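FORM 7B: Structural annotation worksheet

SECTION A. Query
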Amino acid sequence: MEKSFFSVSQINSYIKSILEEDVILSELFIEGEISNFKRHSSGHLYFSLKDENASINCVMFKSSASRINFEMRNGLKVMVFGRISLYEKTGAYQLYAEIIQDYGKGELHIRFEALKNKLYSEGLFDEKYKKPIPPAPKTVALITSPTSAAVRDMIRMGRSINPGIELVIIPSLVQGAEAPYSLVNALDIANRWKKADIIIIGRGGGSIEDLWAFNEEIVARAIFNSKIPVISAVGHETDYTISDFVSDLRAPTPSAAISMSFPDRMSYINTLNYLYKKMDRAIIRKISHIEQEIKALNFKDYYYRLINKNNKDYDRLKGYNRRMSQKMLSNIKNSEEKLSHYASLMEKLSPLRLMSRGYAIAFKNDIPVNSVERLNPGDTIKLMFSDGYAKAFIESCLKNEER
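SECTION B. Predicted structure
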């Protein structure tokens, strides 16, 4: 049997390929105590990680070492994220550290930083990929737990800001081992439905463990791949998740997400009124301009027939006159259609239309009242109905939770 001979370099290269292809060794967390710590002039860090029975050599390159926010020293217990590989020159295997955290911060913080760095390097946080949030949505999809306190607040706020916008709840788990898959499924449903202009995904506050579903890679990639703009609204203002970084817009709280995506109804009506007047002026200017063009063409037509008498050129000029007339009629028709569309929108959003169904607007000292907190027992208020006014006396004031 013929024997095979290998060079040292071949063997080391082969062993290195085995280590780097191993699923466990290519991405792992190791906890231990720092020893033999050295900071090289190049900025690289060299140290050993040990426990009571063994140690492993570690290296951390300058690009990763620059992100450490605590003092590295011998005897410090840390959690390290990295990969195992072989340094071919010496044949020694070692841990190539990418993230190091004080042991007290725990594994979840390291996993968070590891995924954040990974997705950042892939460009998933780049502003160039952020989709604009529509300024006047018709339908907003809300992905969250339908039984949470946060969703009730969001529904109540949405109705008070602009009841004309449809808020559709797509139920999802927001905590636990199955939550990431549930959130991804809900995002897929919203995108296949194709009727939502904006997606809000989130939940109320909690610990890092409670919010962890929004730090999973599959959720982050599903948000990034969404064809519909996504607003991330997870936890409180100080809570940050991977979903916040990859979404098209981050809201500091779930309620803030509603404020950021729901345009105020009165502001919308004022905008429509402005556009209506602007369109009206534009139509008048356009008609005047076309009339002047027609007069000029008629003069040219008369002058040309008087001087030239060339039937061929005369017919061509007549055709130009005819096309200009058709263009004028087409422009007028388009302007009338746009004017009719905006008039229809104004009618749908008119407060008088809402009041004709039995609603009324309350005024205190001629100022609209939008909250029970602005009223006190003994106040006299004025109620405006679609066909007149009425005065009322406030006997008592009760908030929703007090009823």
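SECTION C. Observations
The domain at 127-263 is CATH 3.40.50.10550 (Rossmann fold). The two ends are 93 Å apart (CA to CA).

SECTION D. Sign-off
Analyst initials: ____
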